[in-house]
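dumping these here so i dont lose them again. two proteins, back to back, each one seq then structure tokens. dont judge the mess
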Amino acid sequence: MMNKLILGVAAALCLASSAAIAAEGVELPEHKWSFHGVFGSYDRAALVRGHQVYKDVCSACHGLKRVAYRNLLEIGVSADEIKEEAAAKEFPGPVDDDGEPTTRPGIPSDRMIGPFANDKAARAANNGALPPDLSLIIMARKGGPDYVYALMTGYGDAPAGMKIAEGMNYNAYFAGHQIAMPPPLSEDAVEYADGTKASVEQMAEDVATFLTWASEPEMEQRKNLGIKVLLFLVVLTALLYAVKRQIWSRVH
């Protein structure tokens, strides 16, 4: 009897999981990314542009609390720009002599502060919707960068006969095709320092690249280490084979 109960619970969980996966939305179009593949690496220019898109557009609603400002040195943002960006934000400071809390300008070692004081303030400013922190959004969503790119470029008019709820927007790649977030990107929403044309597609690609780095900043080091380990194993295998041949060459 207990075994039947366990099997029933397991089957129910499998069905629930399948239903959740099916509800995630339509199949995502595959995008070509520089960091895919064994030898893939981050496009540094795209990372800098993606950081600009996040700073100028996404940071108005979304935090990046697992990334410190000084980490931006890794993608090519200058130390002076990092200090300026951090100093523009206010962080909790020490309590003053009267016991009142104070604030201080940010410093490079601080983690990127979110735009809202707490989740309730975030919901109040977004019609009840809670904008997710983007630090691990690539890891948390099926499809990773493909999902983010598709979501950013998937806004449009709803098909005929589809009713969009008040305060919602149609998106071809969001589960249920109705999303509270209005289209975040528009043509020339930012002015790239390197002169790149800021089309919606370009900005979506750049910010998806940047958020992938935020989720996996160690990816390039991990791949390099993996390649070195494989090369070592190849050399070791060749040496062991040569030793084996040498030892057994005297045995007829």
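---- next one ----
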Amino acid sequence: MSRLEKLKQDMLDAVNSICESYRLEQDGSVTEVAKEVYEYPIYKVSRHSKQIVKFTGLTKGETLVSGTSSNSVGYKSSLFAEHTDKDTWLELPYDKDTGFYDMQIVACRDGFYDREMHRIYDFDVGTEYDIIEPAKHPSEFMLEQQRLAIERFIDENM
């Protein structure tokens, strides 16, 4: 077989393979679907209930802020809507170094006055103060500030 005939045959085989793959896809015979790989955790906020979920899998996660959902803080489920559903979720910025997500209520120390206080973690300005830990028992005022920040975030990203 000459080089030209071999090249022709290789091209025909490639076309036949593509056509067969397409036919199998259309028939629904293809069982292996390419899956996207995600780096977890992923933090999302619900467009509807303002619930913040820390996803550890496509539908698996933990409620961090309940918003108006019936899920309380700490609720774990593997039945959340997929975090890829753009009609349900907006992605929250997440600081891999500190482990905090945007709008998280944190206890921090103001370096200038050396006093402790609670603040909402701002992903963009996280270095203004020294963060100690997530706030364990935030005040009603801080919870209201967080709720307002989440509403603004959702409104800006709709």
